[in-house]
Amino acid sequence: PAAVPTIDDVVSVRRRHIARSQRNYYRNPMNLVRGRGVWFHDEDGLAYLDSLNNVTHVGHAEPRVTAAATRQLRKLNTNSRFVYPQIASYVRKLVATLPDPLEVVFLVCTGSEANDLALRIARQVTGRQHIVNIDGAYHGNTGVVTGISPNRYKGPGGAGAPATTHEVVIPDRYRSTYGYDDADAGAKYARDAAAVIERITADGRPPAAFIAESLMGSGGNIVFPDGYLDGVFTAARRAGALCISDEVQVGVGRLGPWWGFELQGVVPDIVTMGKPLGNGHPLAAVVTTREIADAFDTGMKYFNTFGGNPVSCAIGEAVLDIVEQDGLRENAVSVGGYFAQSLRELQQRQPLIGDVRAEGLYLGVELVRNRTTRMPATEQAFMVTELMKERGVIVFPNGVHDNVLKIKPPMTFRREHVDLYVDALDEVLSLPELRSAVQS
Ligand code: PMP
């Protein structure tokens, strides 16, 4: 067999043949050759604890997923216009995780594609073009969804919001208008969002949809205050818009319930899902109501070559079975709770930690140089990333200021892994180069 490319080969091929806009993690990346459970292994045999793969939901190289995939690959794979049993078993199980009346499924390959299709459905069904989104959000990489992703259109190289995109304020209780001390923050952020919806409706630009994650991922791990989505959904529906929940990052039990919107007590009109569905295999979905799906069917065909092929369905079914059989939703709540508590204890003695946000196994650690001014510790967050890697822990910042360590590990994470993470972070934050960044 040909020699496996070394890290130097890979870096040089990437430099030459992979477009530079496709950034990789780390200044000096490792050559990852294997994954098992919550661990990565590099070419030198070093192990790294994976705290951020919400894609490998049930663990790296999970044997039951591998078995389902290889069994089906040996039997049959084909495009999705043929009829085969796997789609029935999978879709039946997927729909069973969702509340009524969400029952009609489009299987696609990526979260971006799911959101692109969700917008297309909303626009066609309502006959409107305008979309209301939340500032800071990321919804994917197609042309259309880049246009509803402030995380991109407001970032480097971005051209600003398209004329059909209307942002509402990010309901970030650490940095925005209403704080953790405001018991009505949810209603107040919703009221401000409703004002945007009412304004554009009144001036002749009524929205086709309001789109939001149920907990904002790339926007900085923003846990919504109670009542927020309920308030905005009510205002959006009053204006005749559909409500889309983007569950691409947080779905499939990571927050405890199968779907994050359940925590906000709402039922969306359209749900999009992706990343964890296939445990790393490209599988994503749009789920909506019979009424909306029928209204979308004007006679024009919708065809997706790979979406929901037999292998994808076999993998998707294995993932749902494992989450259920292994009690991973319950694990997310208990280990996530322990993680949040451990990080809050660390926050007591590490002044760089400004805020800890958590829901199940989705957590964010916001680093600031000054707790009073909340000056983002962006450069320090990248230093932490490199220093944690030296200690065998994979972390990475996100958020509007790139200063929030995102934590969304495989759902098989245990307390001992939390302890490894927290001890390494404690050690790193105690180093002089980080301590000296704290402004007194
Ligand atoms: N929605 C959200 C909330 C996401 O975080 C992402 C990916 N980071 C996407 C959509 C796009 O998914 P994909 O990369 O699979 O196209």
Automatic annotation (TrEMBL):
Keywords: Aminotransferase, Pyridoxal phosphate, Transferase. It comes from the Bacteria. GO terms for molecular function: pyridoxal phosphate binding; transaminase activity. The keyword Acyltransferase does not apply. The keyword Transferase applies. Belongs to the class-III pyridoxal-phosphate-dependent aminotransferase family. This is Aminotransferase class III-fold pyridoxal phosphate-dependent enzyme. It comes from Streptomyces sporangiiformans.
